[in-house]
């Protein structure tokens, strides 16, 4: 008979017992902590992107609305990839709302309607905060686990491209400045 583990209610800091853990490479604390930082910011970016997506108004609404969906999808898929990599390394990802709110480096998105041009600035700032976190932990991750670093490279490529796409909406050519 297999014993089941129940999550205490309300769910909080109580941890469940580890059972039948696989063998193999176990992420050292610094690697676990680094990947957790990235995970938190990716989850926050997903939420910030949706907040902007739902509440933008103004010029070029439709294009920005659709582009925000792309950022949200990248952040959602990347957070899942990072969390699953953590599990493969015998680390426990923590994406609870209270953890994300407390640990994210992203600035808070304004409440209510946001003009598209202001939303562009807000979302570029959020994407850049996320990529800064990835770059901050990169060398530590690469030293401990090059495979995890490769995952971070892929995420950086996608997010930095989106930052460029969105920021181009309000930029002026250098010669016109």
UniProtKB/TrEMBL annotation:
Which InterPro entries does this one have?
DPS_DNA-bd, DPS_DNA-bd_CS, Ferritin-like, Ferritin-like_SF, Ferritin_DPS_dom
Task: Give the residue spans that cross the bilayer.
Answer: none
A single GO molecular-function term is: ferric iron binding
- Pfam families of this UniProt entry? Ferritin
Q: Where is the Ferritin/DPS domain?
A: 34-168
Family named by the database record: Belongs to the Dps family.
Q: What is this protein called?
A: DNA starvation/stationary phase protection protein
Q: Which organism is it from?
A: Rothia kristinae
């Amino acid at each position: 008979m297999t014993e089941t583990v129940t999550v205490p209610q309300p769910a909080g800091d109580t941890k469940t017992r580890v059972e039948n853990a696989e063998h193999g490479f176990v992420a050292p604390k610094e690697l676990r902590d680094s990947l957790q930082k990235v995970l938190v910011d990716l989850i926050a970016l997903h939420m910030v992107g949706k907040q902007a997506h739902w509440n933008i108004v103004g010029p070029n609404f439709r294009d920005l609305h659709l582009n925000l969906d792309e950022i949200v999808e990248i952040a959602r898929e990347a957070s899942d990839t990072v969390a699953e990599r953590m599990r493969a390394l015998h680390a426990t990802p923590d994406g609870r709302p209270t953890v994300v709110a407390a640990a994210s480096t992203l600035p808070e998105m304004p409440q209510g309607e946001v003009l598209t041009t202001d939303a562009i600035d807000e979302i570029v700032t959020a994407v850049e905060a996320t990529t800064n976190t990835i770059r901050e932990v990169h060398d530590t991750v690469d030293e401990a686990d090059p495979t995890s670093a490769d995952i971070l490279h892929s995420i950086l490529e996608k997010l930095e491209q989106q930052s460029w796409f969105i920021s181009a909406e309000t930029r002026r050519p250098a010669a016109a400045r």
